[in-house]
Fold this sequence. Notes:
Elements: H1 4-24, H2 46-58, H3 65-78, H4 89-100, E1 115-119, H5 124-132, E2 136-140, E3 154-155
Amino acid sequence: MESEKTLALRQQIASLVDEYASLTLGPKPFVPGQTAVPPSGKTLGAPELHNMVDAALDGWLTTGRFNEEFETRLARYIGVKHLITVNSGFPANLVAFSTLTSPKLGIGRSLLVMEVIAVAAGFPTTVNPILQFGAVPVFVDVEIELAISTPARWRQPSVQGPRPSCSHPGKSLQSRRDHRDMS
């Protein structure tokens, strides 16, 4: 519980945030060739600054009460019982594979023989969760001119012989069939 002094300081800081927002984040005239256009189209105002400052004052620089509220409201909005937010694609892939391999689904162990399509020019953070959970990445090239993948351009990794152990105890990549270069 906060003391009267800390609540008074928060109110003072909130007042300063409002003043700062009105001076720096208000509408400005657009001057062609001079005014920068942000690529993300983000819009920040006093409410967003208040949330950021409140989170910092709470000491929560990752997830905290704002994230919990967002997850609860989003889950209710889309009509699901459970929801978790992540900060980027890599943890999203880890959460997806963790969910797919959960014993609660009753099908999780079937991933030991699953092949997962991955873009050949993608990030290692896309391939690592595939390997970590015992699946086999199947790399796909993309037609640059069309920005699409075609089955004729699909490739499988050329892997022969014993496979390294997966990072999860009890799961081994050894049990899958050998893959030969199909190019």
